[in-house]
Amino acid sequence: KGAIQVEGVSKIYSNGVVGLDNINLSIKPGEFVVVIGLSGAGKSTLLRALNRLHDVTAGTIKIDGDDITKASGKKLRNMRRNVAMIFQNYNLVKRSTVAKNVLSGRVGYYSTWRSAFGLFNKDDQNRAAKSLERVNLLDKYYTRARDLSGGQQQRVGIARALMQEPAVFLADEPVSGLDPKTTKLVMDDLKRLNDEDGLTVVANLHSVDLAMAYATRIVGLKAGKLVYDKPIGEVQEED
Ligand code: ADP
Ligand code: ADP
């Protein structure tokens, strides 16, 4: 599980800006794909399309054979659970505890009123503790998110995303603004999910060096077009 098939995908924003221009990309389960490109190249637009945070203008995106661009209702919800995402700005609720933030990765499994009151069951509380163990932050369970460092907040974001029990893990500029040591902790967490759980990882990064250190494959975007796509073993210095 965790295959992604992008066919002829274009995204034109309502103001006429072309975010993506006819992207074709086939990703196998367990790959660690790093997408590189300048700011504005379309990296974020691509990731947001993969879990349907927004709609595309043309083309199809199949996750394990099912087209997520056309799914709706319960089927779409189930597909989106399978494609977790972390963000550049972490997107945590800063005044809430780490535990509550992590448990919020499970809200889709609850009725609205239960999640509104934070009435998570014992299984999910255990699941939250396990997720936090994966990123070595179990000791922060009752800490408020705003009292964590940026790197710790991103790792809580990873723990929250794991609550979905996804097959695909999307990371949109997960380490921008973090120092090298913290960057390594976050990237190592992603690598571990890729190695140990076999999750397919697609990460947008600015740094070619980081891409070389972690990716199994590097994809390059430029002005919404896919201009580069090579497995790590074939990447040349002069590329
Ligand atoms: P969509 O076509 O996906 O519905 P919209 O054009 O409606 O997207 O824009 C969604 C949001 O992004 C709006 O709040 C808009 O103001 C904001 N936005 C507009 N232009 C840009 C831009 N160049 N970069 C980032 N965000 C933008
Ligand atoms: P990257 O992630 O590579 O920096 P983006 O995917 O954010 O690039 O942006 C690709 C292009 O789409 C840019 O020209 C950007 O300004 C534009 N863009 C991004 N989001 C929106 C939006 N919501 N509305 C309009 N234009 C957008």
Largest sheet: 6 strands, mixed
Query: What fraction of the residues are assigned to beta strands by DSSP?
Result: 15-25%
**Whole-number average pLDDT?**
94
Helix segment count?
8
Bound molecules: adenosine-5'-diphosphate
User: Assembly state here?
Assistant: single chain
Report helical residue fraction: 25-40%
Question: Based on CA inertia axes, which overall geometry fits?
Answer: globular
> How would you spell out the order of helices and strands?
EEEHEEHEHHHHEHEHEE
Stretches where pLDDT is under 50 for at least 5 consecutive residues are none
Q: How many distinct beta strands?
A: 10
SS content category: alpha/beta
Return Rg in Å.
18 Å
Terminal Cα separation, in Å? 31 Å
- Strands in their spatial order, largest beta sheet: 6-7-8-3-9-10
InterPro entries: AAA+_ATPase (IPR003593), ABC_transporter-like_ATP-bd (IPR003439), ABC_transporter-like_CS (IPR017871), ABC_transpr_PhnC (IPR012693), MetN_ABC_transporter-like (IPR050086), P-loop_NTPase (IPR027417)
Keywords: ATP-binding, Cell membrane, Membrane, Nucleotide-binding, Phosphonate transport, Translocase, Transport
Domain ABC transporter: 4-239
GO molecular function: ABC-type phosphonate transporter activity; ATP binding; ATP hydrolysis activity
